[in-house]
Design a protein that fits this description.
By secondary structure, the protein is mainly α. The chain has 11 helices and 4 strands.
């Protein structure tokens, strides 16, 4: 305490005797319990430095007298997780798709693992949760180009669509804008008829005129009632669910008839996905809401 200490008349507390520009400092020491806690943290820190990895050294860092390291613990936990995971992977490898779905534990494991695999490999095209995008099928509805059973889905994932794998799904819609072209009027009538299959046509007279064109050129693949044909990847036209959906669906249909678009899906077996992973992914995709 300074020699000029005096008692503050308001607080009744003595000052330290220091003064700066007329400002005086009260002499209010820290509570003893707080001081002892502070000292304890210093002791704790020193003990931690000794027991655990801490200070850097010229050749690395202080390893600690206990020999413990967080990285070692992480490696051990990962190894434990891999061991537990291996049990389920072995069961899935030896089980059929139907048996996986029937087994509650295997199903939960496949759904959890499948979500991670899907997000890493499939979501870029099919969207989070398989909701699809323009030109990329929605996997959460009940319409399937190449079949929606567990086996169908696994086959599609394994070999893909329109790629170089000899087992991939192959199909090609003819371009009715060339070779034996349709006139603009015929294209308009055909588009109205296709829309009428899902009760979306706004011109019934034109739709009626498009019936004969549809019967001649479209029925072999899409079916008389527009029910589609999964054997050749021909979509059902009665559902009103469009792979190429636009602001004007009529314009999209006319464009597709005139100059068809067809997507390519990779063969995931060719990309190194093993049989067990393919099963897990197939079960997950099947669960998204549209599996048969």
């Amino acid at each position: 305490m300074g020699t000029n200490a005096e008692k503050d008349p308001i607080s009744g507390q003595y000052t330290t005797g220091h003064e700066w520009d007329g400002i005086k400092e009260l002499n209010t020491p820290l509570p003893r319990w707080w001081v002892w806690v502070f000292y304890a943290t210093i002791v704790w820190a020193v003990a931690y430095w000794v027991l655990y990895p801490s200070w850097p050294t010229l050749s690395g860092y202080w390893q600690g007298t206990l020999g413990w390291h967080s990285r070692t613990q992480v490696v051990q936990e990962i190894d434990q997780a891999k061991s537990a995971k291996a049990v389920y992977l072995s069961k899935i490898q030896n089980a059929s798709l139907e048996d996986i779905v029937k087994d509650k534990d295997l199903l939960n494991f496949a759904l959890t693992g499948g979500r991670s695999i899907f997000n890493e490999n499939c979501a870029a095209c099919h969207g989070g949760g398989g909701v699809g995008a323009y030109g990329f099928p929605n996997l959460a509805d009940d319409q399937w180009l190449w079949g929606g059973t567990l086996d169908d889905i696994k086959t599609t994932i394994t070999y893909g669509v329109r790629n170089t794998n000899p087992n991939s799904h192959q199909s090609e819609m003819p371009a009715w804008g060339g070779g034996d072209p349709l006139s603009d009027a015929d294209l308009n009538n055909l588009a109205e008829y296709v829309l009428s299959l899902s009760k979306s046509s706004t011109d019934q007279a034109a739709a009626q005129k498009g019936l004969d064109i549809y019967a001649e050129r479209c029925t072999p693949c899409h079916g008389e009632a527009g029910e589609g044909n999964q054997a050749v990847g021909a979509p059902a036209l009665v559902s009103g669910l469009w792979l190429y959906k636009g602001k004007s669906q009529k314009a999209e249909i006319m464009s597709q008839v005139r100059n068809p678009k067809g997507g390519v899906m990779p063969s995931w077996s060719d990309r190194g996905m093993d049989e067990t992973t393919l099963k897990i992914l197939a079960v997950y995709v099947h669960s998204l809401g549209g599996g048969k």
